[in-house]
Amino acid sequence: WVEGKHDAELVEKVWGHDLRVEGIVVEPLHGVDDLAGAIRAFNPSPERRLGILVDHLISGTKEEHIVKEAMRVPGAAQHVLILGHPYVDVWQAVKPSALNITKWPVIARGTDWKTGILREFGWPHSTAEDIGLGWQRILSHVDHYSQLEPQLLGKVEELIDFLTSEDYGFLTID
Question: Do strands 80-84 and 50-54 pair parallel, antiparallel, or not at all (unpaired)?
């Protein structure tokens, strides 16, 4: 599972063929606020492992608390791996060089991040359709994993390893 539609589109574009070969399906969660409930409904088991990629999973965030709660669901500790990247949104995992910019703009707290990014780029940003078209413009610049930040690459590869390896070893961190 990935947090949203854009995450799913990016993972599918870069890793889609490899995932299909392995029988892995990428599904968007449309947010992680009820991650524990979604995991409970999935009912993880040795035959039903689940890998989850979360945006902005850094110490002290709301996302960190959500993940800790979700990992208390029965079966999660053994059959679910939740990893995250440090970016506010998966858009930011696209290397600036892929977009011919030097760095991602800094968006003021309290401003919708995607709207702010599109405004900074001088692109339409007023509607949900503008946001979707802006993402498609960004995604069109990604043709290869080398155009993505290592912090995302490593997490996706680790989730794939977890889902495909019989002997994946868990590292427990208190």
Answer: parallel
